[in-house]
Amino acid sequence: MSKPTFERNIVRREGDADPVDILRYLRAFLENGGIDDSILRSNLGLFLTASNLTKVLFIADVYSRIIDVPGSIYEFGCHLGQNLVLFENLRAINEPFNRQRRFVGFDMFALDSGYPSRSDIDGESPEIVGDSYTLPEDYPDRLKSLFAFHQDLSVTPGESRLTLRKGNAMETVLEHLNDNPGEAIALGYFDLATYVPTKAILDAIDERVVPGTVLVADEFNFGSYQGASKAFLEYLGHRKCKVEKSRVMTDRALFTVL
Q1: Does position 11 have pLDDT exceeding 60, yes or no?
Q2: Which pLDDT band holds residue 7 (cuts at 50, 70, 90)?
Q3: How far is residue 115 from each of residues 15, 134, 191, measured CA to CA in Å?
Q4: Domain range spanning residue 41?
């Protein structure tokens, strides 16, 4: 099917119920709907689907839990960096004068694709064995620039609060912790899908969590990601946490350190 094109009038064709077609029409409306850019920027909710909005609401709920917790936000497996940008904007809304809230994203970015540390525990889901995460070589620089634009729109612009660590997170987290020996962690977001890196990083950051630190398991008790769940269950063996299923995204679990 060719990409739909529109002039001034956008009309949904009778019987278009296929999700792929619907997303094509939303994109066509966004690009060619005849809405002035200055108006469009304030009405992007026109193009948010329920699944898109659910993710934003989930991230907002996570952030609300750490407002009174000192420390930085670490994301392991940040991919495009959407969560990091959302977290910065939520900082600007909820604690606009908190300059100490810093953001650290760990990812392979363009260096590799897929998950290099798979084990038998992890299974063979397409998301784990595939190569859908490869990005342009300069993507980290693009992300830093995009993040800076968002930060500059806040009441506390200036030096970037974002650090990106490119490479194997099991190694780069140790480098980051060594470079920042006094940095506490308020939030650790884990989207690594596999056992070995999740386990290694939970162990590495354990001395930096504080009472109230929230650890998010993007894949917990999820059939296709047994390894990530196992790593968190083992972590509970020595670190007392309150464990909750997200009410917004039920496949996410929140571990609040006690």
Answers
A1: no
A2: very low
A3: 40, 11, 11
A4: 1-47
